[in-house]
Amino acid sequence: FFLSREKTYNRKLYEILLALKIERNLSKDQILELYINQIYLGQRAYGFSAAARAYFGKPLSEISLAEAAMLAGLPKAPSAYNPIANPSRATLRQHYVLRRMVEAGFSDNASYQKALKEPLRTQTGSVARNGGNSTPMHGDYVAEMARQIAVEQFGEEAYQLGIKIVTTITRDDQEAAYAALRKGVMDYDRRHGYRGPERFVELPQGADAEALDDILADSSDHDDLLAAVVLEASPSGVKVFRRGETYDITGDGLRFAAPMLSEKSPQTRRVRRGAVIRIRSMEKQGWEIAQLPEVEAALVSVDPHTGAVRALVGGFDFNSNKYNHVTQAQRQPGSSFKPFIYSAGLERGYSPGTLIEDEPLYFPA
User: Fold this and answer.
1) Which residues pair with 230 in a beta bridge?
2) CA–CA distance from 283 to each of 13, 111, 286, 288 (Å)?
3) N or C terminus of the chain: which is more exposed, having fewer CB within 10 Å?
């Protein structure tokens, strides 16, 4: 977290030098402490103290063994093992951590059995301060902007100060913006056709639910676009597995991916056994095959009277791409001006058919 994510030789060299410097100046326990206080653990929580409040609404000192094991399972894949978004997969990971704790001598069998029986109780929403719940809202990009401002102003102490940040975002506007952006991006992507499965895996016959869940561990859900692995596929129906359940997709649910269900489709793009795909609920009409869009978008809504930002969505999905297209993309502003210029023209009697001479004008002095 002290370096950028770029993949260059210079960055790797800096990483080596930084590792040597840290090794000389800090003990192993201090290095571990530094790491666990900074690592991202989902739900916009950085460090285990913030994660304890985000997932369980309590300080780290008050969590149980079962809750500690749940948090300890997050670093491998915060999205995949998120107990709020993926409770069944998170529980499997939690049980693995508890078993390893017993094997390594950090827990006894009685505590292990008690932790296994403890029900999973998480709070929905983002990081809560002082043990309180926060209202669930799709404000990840806004929250990240607020976090960056706090760190810029207060440094690393921002994580311990219990700062309360108030924004001008309104819940209804934010949720409407989030839904509109996702619908627009998915509709655009859908018009360009189905590209095929995200990847393929070897699927042994008789694979149990835990093995199938492990296959999906690296394919996190993206809101309503859920990861699933194909067990059977034909032009008339597809059977998929996710979170311990199997689902049959037929009829209209196959329409989007129909070209890739044909025997004539390329093997590398065909929906077949072992394919990892996206599915989406059609509510009362069952499930449909979908896909993650390749395009991005952003949306900002501003109160014209006060300048207050009422909604801000920096991209299609924060968990898959934290790049904020509102603040980081540096787009040309020209197209943003057009509605104001055209509106002023219409207000003065111009019509869409009005011809404007696009040439220099000279006025005698």
Assistant:
1) 240
2) 52, 42, 6, 10
3) C
